[in-house]
Each structure stands twice: as structure tokens, then as C-alpha cells.
């Protein structure tokens, strides 16, 4: 089994101090006061991380590709450089880097660019998708002014 040592070490010992050359245990310099995780612990951590990453991110990609907000963003990005840039950054996070903090940041960034176009129903759909995919700590909200504009049809 291939182990991503950095991810596993951060998972097992958040905030731990270490240096790693390459991706082999032999290249690990452990500088933390906590005990160094064993190979068995690292392998178990990789199994857990694989479950979370594969399940959550792949499902998120599948569901976002079919949601109204994604399609709206895609079409609006053709006429707005700001929307295009925000949309492309979000796509990179979802499809490539898969960093949860970046997901929240770039979702908010895209929503800020779409504030004059998004409806509360579309926002609810995205929040439901995030929840279904295990991203329970990310809750997106429309700014008050844009929510009022969207619901009044202005």
C-alpha cells in the first residue's frame, strides 16, 4: 500500500513538528514531543484517509457537476473574467488539490462574484450537496442584500 506520509502524519498528529525527505520513513526526522507513529498506525491512517477522500471528493464532483449553480457559473464565466477566475479556482480545488479549507474559501469567492445571479434555492442545493458529501463544517450563505434581490426577482 502506498502511504502519503505527510497526510498520514498530519492526520495522526495534527500540528506535529517533523521534516521529511522524499516519501519514505527513512527520510523522516521527527521533532515532536509525541511518539512517532508506527508503520502500522500510518497504514491504518492511510486506509481511513482513502475512505474519506475517495468517498467525499468523488461524490462532491459528481453532484456539483449536475447542480444549477455549477451550470450557471459555467455559462456566466464566458462573459465575466472575475466569475471565470473564481470558477476556475474552485474547479481546481474540487478536481485536483482537494483541500477542504480552500474549498470553503473559493466557494465563498465564487458566490461573491455570483451574488447578483444566485437564488436562495440554488444556495440551498449547494449546501445540501456539501452536507451529503461530508463537508458539514462548510455552510455557505448569501449576503443579505443579494438574497433579498434574488427572492424579489430584481
Write the layout of secondary structure elements.
Blueprint: H1 5-12, E1 18-20, E2 28-30, H2 39-65, H3 68-76, H4 81-97, H5 100-114, H6 120-132, H7 144-152
Antiparallel strand pairs: 1-2
Helix pairs in contact: 1-2, 2-6, 4-5
How would you sum up this structure in a few lines?
This protein has helices at residues 5-12, 39-65, 68-76, 81-97, 100-114, 120-132, 144-152, and strands at 18-20, 28-30.
Tags for this entry?
154 residues, mainly alpha, two-stranded antiparallel ribbon, 64% helix, 4% strand, disordered C terminus
Helix tally equals: 7
Spatial strand order of the main sheet: 1-2
User: Helical content, roughly?
Assistant: 55-70%
Total number of domains: 2
Could you please describe the fold and organization of this structure?
The protein has 154 residues and is mainly alpha-helical. The protein has 2 domains: 45 residues, no CATH class; 98 residues. It contains 7 helices and 2 strands; from the N terminus they run H-E-E-H-H-H-H-H-H. Strands 1-2 form a two-stranded antiparallel sheet. A hairpin with a 7-residue loop joins strand 1 and strand 2.
